[in-house]
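Moderator note: this is an archived Q&A kept for reference. The question asked for a predicted structure of one protein chain; the sequence and the answer are reproduced below.
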Amino acid sequence: MLISNRKPKADTRNLLNSFALRGVFLLGILVICMLSGCRFTSHSSVPSGTATPQAERQLYLTGRFVGDSGDPFDGLCAFRLSDGVQQRCTGVPIIISTTPAANAGILYTSWGQQTIAAVRLATAAQLWQRLLPQPLTFGPVLVGDNLYLATGATKFAPPSGWVYALNARDGSVRWREQTEVPAGPLVVSGDILYLSTQDQTGGSGGGEGAVYALRASDGVRLWRLPTSRSWNAALAISPDATSLDAIYLTTDTQTIEARRLSDRTLLWRYRGHTAFGSLLLADDTVFATARDRQLYAFDAQTGTLRWHRSAWSRYQSPIVMGNAVYTSDIQADSQNTSSDDNAIVAFQVQTGQRLWRRQLGGNVGGLTLDGSVLYIVSVVNAPNPESLPVHDCLYTMVNALSSAVGTTRWSQRLHGCATGRALIA
């Protein structure tokens, strides 16, 4: 018997008509949905109503704190950024750095005087540590996967210092360059690292200091500018060094200079009647703290003094966002008291008009600005510190203020002493 593989023509036509009708039906549904705003949902293995969790950013403090048992410990404490609720406090080896760096969930800080280490913020687990031949003086500064820091010692003849670039992943040394003893924080702009140093007598006078420019990628010295500054030198520079081709520095206790970066030609010099501390460049304004309890604002291009206002910040650099500059206003007699006269104050950048002032108890240890919120760490001292588990410190306050008006978002108290400003990661 022969069996044909061909189907009747009528069956073929019926089948094609059926597919055509289905296509028209589905196309009609699609058009209706597009006109009425239908939303299509794809199904996956994630149960309905379950969103993929994202880690909330947190605020971190390092310092020497007091546990529930009353015993002090060196630790890392985390707070929820949205409402300040304390998440955990984890004990770690001693942390004394007041300017740690953090990125991608890792904290870089000094342990003891000569050890730099990396710690995972979530668990306080140590990732690596490196022993340095000299005490850490400034840093660390994290740029990409490079960790820059400066060391120095005055016990040698002559006093010496070193600048290091470490691999942030494992702490290995990428390069190092010898200088005099560092006298101020490191500043990285583009592929250049700037550093000020003390005189050869270790800051006791009778010699000259200097400003160094090193290539950040390999440490090659680009230039060295001698200065008369022997201690606590400060530098300020544009982040990209293109909008203003200038470097700003304190050359002695009462003088601020602006020099062209390309050839170090003097652009302007301002000599005051007080010792200047930290410098900050923000757009076309150079801010300087000073020992006469004033915050100074200079025109960055001409050196003209625009304004100065009462604000005693103990050489802590102010911070700027938008049209406001924020700084601490600490009473000079509050070194060992819990004075309520210490405050945070905000000024208008161009005019110096005071926008708001907020009183805070304790000595302000640092300001951190994140979006529209200003986070302040202040340490409240006690009249009889020897009676406390942590000497010289009664407790630490962490305040979150609105940067626009200074009102409180949240406030938390922590027993013990925090070191430096808050870190957000």
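Archived answer notes: Residues 9-36 form the longest helix (28 residues).
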